[in-house]
Amino acid sequence: MLGRIHDPEQPPVVMGIVNATPDSFFAPSRVPGTPEGVRSALGLVEAGADILDVGGESSRPGAEYVSAREELDRVLPVIRGIREHSDVVISLDTRKAEVARAALEAGADIINDISGFRDDPELLPLVAGTNTPIVIMHMKGSPRTMQVDPRYDDPVSEVRGFLARQVRLALAAGVNPEGIIVDPGIGFGKRLEDNLALLDNLGECSRLEGAPPEGFPVLLGHSRKGFIGTLLEPVLTAEDDSAAGGAPRLIGTLAAGLYGILRGARILRVHDPRETRMAVQVWWSIQQGRQVQ
């Protein structure tokens, strides 16, 4: 799968969101650690997800910190259940080395840290020592504070600078450069104009010192977020459901995802892998001038 992520001749990868949390902003993505919850997660694979991103701590704006013990209680049953039935690539969304270590032992393959490996100094040595691929994401502040009047002089330059610094730290710790994925953190401490600038300049996040020739793969986490609802406001009618779970947010997500591919995204992290897979199939086939199998 990592080989495909690095190959620009291959279509982008779809990452399905599995929230083992009671409070994530999109309720249908919440999956309890029960057989029914595991079946729901596996359903995302059947729907077209190449990777499942399992998280046990909500990162919605205003979310509170969750202890490692509680996070483990949430994610381990889901990871074990998925691994029992599938060899799909599993990404763990965590900021804690203790959680990451147990999840890797349970079958996780990738560590996705929304803090960009700032929060826990033990996490980079862990992933380096286990040769685990990682996602380095930019976030201003913490989930609790990130949307409290975020400000940038130049969002693209500042986010790129942060990612470059964290990549250098990862490489110095011994992380394999072929296993580094970067994420500009759409919606994580960003205003509308910041999100749009980053979406338009995803390639700038890829071309960092130490990257492979094709650059670091860029993950785009845009799915059903508030900025999409804002962009849709001028065309919504009274009958439209403008909430995160409504059809307009899905349509906007598909549009933003395809534009993200055009600007350099290699992984689309989404709540709706089936619809995303269909949109990517048509877009990629048009780009290739043939039906892609």
Automatic annotation (TrEMBL):
It catalyses: (7,8-dihydropterin-6-yl)methyl diphosphate + 4-aminobenzoate = 7,8-dihydropteroate + diphosphate. GO terms for cellular component: cytosol. Its EC number is 2.5.1.15. Signal peptide: none annotated. GO terms for molecular function: dihydropteroate synthase activity; metal ion binding. InterPro entries: DHP_synth-like, DHP_synth_dom, Dihydropteroate_synth-like_sf, Pterin-binding_dom. Residues 12-281 form the Pterin-binding domain. It holds the Pfam family Pterin_bind. Keywords: Folate biosynthesis, Magnesium, Metal-binding, Transferase. Gene3D superfamilies: Dihydropteroate synthase-like. GO terms for biological process: folic acid biosynthetic process; tetrahydrofolate biosynthetic process. Its cofactor is Mg(2+). It comes from the Bacteria. Pathway: Cofactor biosynthesis; tetrahydrofolate biosynthesis; 7,8-dihydrofolate from 2-amino-4-hydroxy-6-hydroxymethyl-7,8-dihydropteridine diphosphate and 4-aminobenzoate: step 1/2. Coiled coil: none annotated. SUPFAM superfamilies: Dihydropteroate synthetase-like. PANTHER family: FOLATE SYNTHESIS PROTEINS (PTHR20941), FOLIC ACID SYNTHESIS PROTEIN FOL1 (PTHR20941:SF1). This is dihydropteroate synthase.
